[in-house]
Amino acid sequence: MADIPTDLDWIRAAPENATGPGPWIEIAFGEGDDDEAPVYLRETSDPATVVTTNRRKWDAFVLGVQAGEFDHFVEGVELDGVDGTAPARPEK
């Protein structure tokens, strides 16, 4: 596994009004601004486990989310509005 820089600026991906410890996803961008520059992801409940990708793949993922390509993964799930967390998934 590649060494993860210790000076990363982690950005929490949580609703603006969210409170509490999450778990939330956090993203950090490594040095560089080209397509191969590293992007790091982790969950607040397990910050020692970090997934690494690159800027090209991250940008493609974000564009896919914006285009609704992943909406089927959250059908029937709505934020509860209290702390920004989603309730348990409905039974299928």
TrEMBL record:
InterPro entries: DUF397. It comes from the Bacteria. Residues 9-65 form the DUF397 domain. This is DUF397 domain-containing protein.
